[in-house]
Each structure stands twice: as C-alpha cells, then as structure tokens.
Amino acid sequence: MDLNRRPDNMERITTPELAQAFIDEQIAALKAQIGDQKVLLALSGGVDSSVVAALLIRAVGKQLTCVHVNHGLLRKGEPEQVIRVFRDEMDANLIYIDATDRFLDKLAGVSDPETKRKIIGSEFIDVFAEEARKLDDTRFLAQGTIWPDILESEGGIKAHHNAGGLPDDLKFELVEPVKILFKDEVRMVGKTLGLPDNMVFRQPFPGPGLGVRCVGAITRDRLNALRESDAILREEFDNAGLAGKVWQYFTIVPDFRTVGVKDGKRVDEWPAVIRAVNTRDAMTATVEELPWDLMKKITARITAEVPGINRVLVDITPKPTGTIEWE
Ligand code: XMP
Asked: Is the pTM of this model over 0.85?
C-alpha cells in the first residue's frame, strides 16, 4: 500500500490488534527505506515524536539519533522522563541538550508575546542545527507529521508546521512514519508500543511551552513559580480523576504582584491562575466547572508550597473571548 497518503477506505486504528498490524507494516517499510543509513529525530517528548522514536528504535535501533532540546520552558519532570524512557528503558541513542541558559538569556527583558515566540522558535532551530551538523553522515530526518498536518497545509489553513525551517546547508530525506494517522491512532500505536500513559495521553502543550504562560518578560524566579504551581495542579487533577477527562489544564503566572500575608508578615507576590478548558478543535473552548473542594485544595497547596505565590485565581473565560493560552 502507498504509505504516503491515507487511503480513503483505511480502517480507523481503534484496537491494539489494528495498531500492531500498522506497527509491523511500518517497521518493514522503515527498514526498507533506511537500510544501513543514519536517521536524526528532534524528540520533544510529545506524543507524535515519541511514537516516531519508538517505531524507529524498533526498526533501526542505534542508527537513530534522538536529540532532546530542553529550552528551559518544559513542564516539571519532562526532560527527566524523556531520558528515562528513551535512553534508560529503550536503550536509544539520545543526545540531551540543556539549552536553558541560552533560551532564557535571549528572552531576558522581552515582553512582546510574538517576539517571545519567534525567539523560542528560531533559537530551537539553531540549537538543533548545531547538533545536526555534528552528525554529518546522517542521511534521514524523521518527523512526527500526522495526517491533520498534511490536510491543513494542503487546505491552506496553516503552513505545515513540521516541514522546513532548517538552514539550507542541512539537507535530509524525510522519514514520516505516522503521517497517515489521526491523533487518536497515534496514541493507540504509542500505547501498543509500550510507551507510558502519561506520554501517550498527554494534554496538548504548545511549542513555546511555559514561555507563553509566564506572561510578559520571563524571569527565572517567576518561571519556577509557574512550573511548580503547574505540577501541583496536574497532580491534583490526577488525584481527582480529572486528568483524562479535561482537555487542557495548566497554570499561568502573570507579571504583577499583590499584597498578601504569610507567617504574619506582609508579602508582595504573584498570583497563579488556573485554566481548565474543554474543546474539540481548540477553535472554541468551554471552561470546566471545577469542584470547589478541589479548588480549595489546589489553592492551599500552591500558596503553601510555591515560593512567590500568595493568591490563586481561576480563569472562567470561554474561547471566545479568551484564547486558551494567555499569550
Ligand atoms: P489558543 O491559545 O490559540 O490555543 O486558544 C489553542 C491551542 O493551541 C495550543 N497552542 C500551541 N500549540 N504551538 C503549538 O504547538 C504553539 O505555538 C501554540 N500556541 C497555542 C494551545 O495550547 C491550545 O491547545
């Protein structure tokens, strides 16, 4: 079958058996395409690139090099999980680059949201290209392109976000093993490949990461408050059984302080804002009605455990008028 286009009559991959058939077929196709050549993959830890990595590890093992760039704007525990799953458990060739200082230095003092996004995007390409140049006998570049990406770029809705971006001196042939799959199918394939549930069923997370939730000019202390408050929120959603039910949930830490009191002393600290939304396509969104007890618990934990936060607020704005992210 033509593995470049999704056949009109292709059965939706909804069972482990169908996923296994797809995996077997793709592994054979990857072996045939790649032969004894080398492949490079930017591994973010998101579901698409993680599934591509797991397929390639099965197909070509150490001929694959994964590069995980930590831009300093990942959620708590994410880089550690990528290293644990891919380097320790799957024995992959993984290059881990902690580029936190590089990104945060470039972002220092930058408050305009679009400028922040551009800096993060172009710095990411620079870091990845530097690594790619060191691996000069690599012929293939793997990407986690999925079928909706192709439909949207063909329909002119948005530029295909994966293709291109690398400087002209870097030329690769593309390997895109999940490009005929819808997102739910990628998840089923990932689960069948044995990836952990919190990787396979991850909520969407924007490329610029926590950068768009640390509103305005990012500072390390406020970014830390954001990361820690977000981790508490995720943990409490998990405990409350909401993790698989609510589409996207996270905290935001805006760049202003208000007066509060901790241990009998005045503190001028930031608020953490809870955002929890449901949507089908992210074009519109409704707000999840959170149980009051849960909000009280989250508030108590964040204000007690996170340095720099003295209030917790809840964003109850649907989209429109509020976008899901604050920047
Ligand atoms: P908004 O804020 O536009 O977000 O309502 C809609 C959905 O898109 C996600 N988002 C992004 N995803 N790169 C991404 O891969 C980005 O730059 C980006 N910005 C927003 C957002 O998290 C939400 O799920």
From this structure: yes
